[in-house]
Structure to design on (475 residues):
């Protein structure tokens, strides 16, 4: 008999979810983690970054208080206090992901690196463990690009950024994606000089209409944006670092954050010994997240590369994957992964939220039946009252009004993402939102107004007006 029914590598969001479900169903579960319980999300990603952003938001609001007639002195940044807030957020959430909690569930937690030695066996902490089923949830790590000189200078990634004992004087950010932009704005608002160097356009995956208000906000916060800038080399500059650009420009700073993307942690797992097909993108699986080459093995989270869809490095995708695996692996029921309604949010200020595909992505598939409707947040009463009415809601539907994608930009628009994810996932039409009764005044009304605009041309058409003209004569 195998030692365990389910062996899980990685105690991040995906691994912990699968472990909790499996143990709750009475299975014998082993959970292997070589680092911190909670993985990147708790220790180096979602939690500390949002805690830092909260501190930065407080500083920004203090500076902008005069717009309400409230005069405050310029905020003084206590970097030790900021760090304490970030550490406190991690500490408050950590018990949910702790060894003690999962041991209490009946999970055997092994705090050591695990590697496959056979199709049904692992080795960790000098012991051999056999299993019926295994789930690889080892996550991803920051990509370090092969730029000449980069390996010779000290640089930061998301795993080391939050441990800085002192506030950076001039933070250079290599990469204009979500992590780079969030951390650039946070540090600028906390009193650092910040320069973002991006080889293409910042927030390149997002709808350009949504990026425009973010670009303006970053520049207003003092962030210097160098878009379309290729880094040719990196070298030391006194006690700091200098980036040498391909156009001959030289940018010097005190610290360098590398945020150009993430890669699956496939090295060191002994995947060849278990005949587990993989690539630098991650573990090759089908849409049920089962390995295409070893039917005992599933993959979840950042390390999963399902049926050509590619990896998705989001904590909420980890939860989605755990549900798929529970259905397919534990209950032996049909399960099929879909990212059609997947939301993602860049937690800058203003935020960018994308639910489902963008307009450009839909047009790239050859669709010609798209209807685009927009509503500017400058027409939203709640945001006007709060002095934050920048951004828009943009909806993309098919010719019959079924919502296919939503692109949002504005203060806190991530809070609207769930509404649109539900609509897309349930294949709902814009009429459902246009006819909904929403509380006034809220930012969500912008979504309702955008949905209503889809039907306005038909409602105000000449035939409808003629019909109403005839109906007015009825008693």
């Amino acid at each position: 008999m195998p030692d365990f029914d389910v062996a899980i590598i990685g105690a991040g969001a995906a691994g912990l979810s699968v472990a909790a479900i499996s143990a709750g169903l009475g299975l014998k579960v082993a959970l292997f983690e070589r680092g911190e319980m909670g993985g990147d999300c708790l220790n180096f990603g979602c939690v500390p970054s949002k805690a830092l952003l909260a501190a930065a938001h407080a500083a920004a609001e203090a500076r902008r208080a005069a717009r309400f007639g409230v005069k405050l002195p310029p905020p003084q940044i206590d970097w030790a206090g900021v760090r304490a807030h970030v550490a406190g957020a991690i500490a408050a959430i950590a018990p949910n992901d702790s060894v003690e909690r999962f041991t209490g569930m009946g999970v055997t937690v092994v705090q050591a690196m695990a590697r496959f030695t056979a199709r049904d066996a692992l080795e960790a902490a000098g012991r051999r463990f056999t299993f019926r089923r295994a789930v690889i949830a080892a996550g991803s790590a920051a990509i370090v690009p092969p730029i000449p000189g980069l390996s010779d200078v000290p640089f930061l990634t998301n795993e080391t950024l939050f441990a800085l004992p002192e506030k950076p004087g001039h933070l250079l950010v290599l990469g204009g994606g979500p992590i780079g932009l969030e951390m650039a704005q946070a540090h600028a608002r906390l009193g650092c000089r910040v320069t973002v160097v991006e080889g293409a356009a910042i927030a390149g995956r997002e709808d350009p209409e949504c990026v425009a208000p973010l670009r303006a906000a970053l520049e207003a916060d003092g962030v210097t944006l160098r878009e379309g800038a290729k880094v040719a080399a990196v070298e030391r500059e006194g006690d700091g670092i200098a980036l040498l650009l391909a156009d001959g420009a030289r940018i010097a700073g005190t610290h360098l954050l590398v945020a150009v993307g993430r890669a699956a942690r496939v090295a060191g797992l002994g995947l060849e010994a278990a005949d587990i097909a993989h690539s630098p993108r991650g573990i090759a699986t089908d849409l049920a997240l089962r390995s295409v080459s070893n039917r005992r093995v599933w993959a979840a989270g950042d390390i999963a590369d399902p049926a050509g869809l590619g990896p998705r490095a989001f904590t909420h995708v980890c939860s989605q994957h755990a549900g798929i695996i529970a259905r397919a692996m534990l209950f032996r029921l049909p399960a099929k992964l879909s990212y059609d309604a997947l939301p993602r949010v860049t937690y800058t200020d203003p935020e960018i939220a994308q639910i489902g595909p963008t307009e450009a992505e839909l047009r790239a598939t050859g669709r010609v039946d798209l209807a685009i409707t927009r509503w500017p947040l400058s027409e939203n009463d709640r945001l006007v009252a709060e002095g934050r009415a920048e951004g828009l809601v943009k909806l993309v539907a098919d010719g019959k009004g079924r919502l296919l994608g939503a692109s949002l930009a504005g203060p806190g628009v991530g809070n609207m993402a769930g509404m649109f994810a539900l609509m897309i996932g349930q294949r709902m039409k814009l009429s459902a939102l246009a006819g909904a009764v929403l509380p006034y005044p809220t930012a969500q009304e912008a979504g309702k107004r955008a949905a209503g605009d889809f039907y306005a041309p038909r409602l105000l058409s000449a035939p409808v007006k003629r019909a109403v003209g005839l109906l007015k004569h009825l008693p």
Remarks:
- The chain has 14 helices and 24 strands.
- Residues 376 and 392 are 4 Å apart (CA to CA).
- Residues 46-64 form the longest helix (19 residues).
